[in-house]
């Protein structure tokens, strides 16, 4: 089977590609920048209509059985200091681009009894101080998937990670600490030092969960949280 993974140059996307490849699956990696796990002809913007047309042709020609959405951008910071253009960019990349990808792949996945996996975030389950716009984009994804789940034959999987050791999280934690007026070290200790797991998770742990989610035969929407107990859900 062949799977498409978006955001394949990032920490979580790359780990998902590696896990699926190790299990013997064919993997097509996409990202807006080139990377170790990104196919040379799949470097492009998921918000660009011309690239989406090209991606659609590739999905059909390779009979992709699962689409894994692993891309996204951070959105932490003091809400009053963030402009409308920043808000639009966060919502466009984290939410709208996923809908476009769904529209592109839905018919094929329905025909092949395929799976559509979205790596959302625990920020799509609970609000986080200093992270309002990011939460808004992830709550939108959670609500959208629950609505779509009631109308499609495609197996939907929503993965909600907590803190995962990636450059994206590092930047978000710095921005959230700044928004709260404390140091990065203080914020990390407050948030993760007292959580049940007592640590930040590794990208490979998300890769393992995604592989399990794809393998599940349950036809309905399945939602899973990997938060180290930080969010009890």
TrEMBL record:
Pfam families: adh_short. CDD domains: SDR_c (cd05233). InterPro entries: NAD(P)-bd_dom_sf (IPR036291), Sc_DH/Rdtase_CS (IPR020904), SDR_fam (IPR002347). This is NAD(P)-dependent dehydrogenase (Short-subunit alcohol dehydrogenase family).
């Amino acid at each position: 089977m062949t799977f498409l993974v978006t955001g394949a140059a990032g920490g979580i996307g790359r780990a998902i590609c590696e896990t699926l490849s190790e299990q013997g699956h064919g993997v097509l990696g996409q990202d807006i920048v080139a990377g170790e796990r990104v196919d040379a002809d799949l470097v492009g913007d998921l918000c660009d209509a011309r690239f989406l047309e090209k991606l659609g042709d590739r999905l059909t020609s390779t009979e992709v059985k699962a689409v894994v959405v692993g891309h996204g951008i951070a959105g932490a910071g003091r809400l009053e200091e963030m402009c409308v253009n920043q808000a639009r960019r966060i919502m466009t990349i984290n939410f709208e681009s996923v809908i476009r990808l769904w529209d592109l792949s839905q018919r094929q996945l329905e025909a092949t009894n395929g799976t559509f996996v979205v790596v959302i975030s625990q920020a799509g389950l609970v609000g986080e101080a200093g992270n309002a716009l990011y939460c808004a984009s992830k709550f939108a994804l959670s609500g959208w998937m629950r609505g779509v789940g009631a109308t499609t034959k495609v197996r939907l999987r929503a993965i909600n990670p907590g803190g995962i050791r990636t450059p994206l999280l590092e930047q978000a934690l710095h921005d959230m600490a700044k928004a709260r007026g404390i140091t990065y070290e203080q914020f990390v200790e407050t948030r993760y030092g007292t959580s049940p797991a007592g640590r930040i998770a590794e990208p490979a742990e998300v890769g393992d969960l995604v592989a399990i989610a794809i393998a599940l035969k349950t036809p309905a929407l399945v939602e899973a949280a990997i938060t180290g107990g930080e969010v009890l859900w």
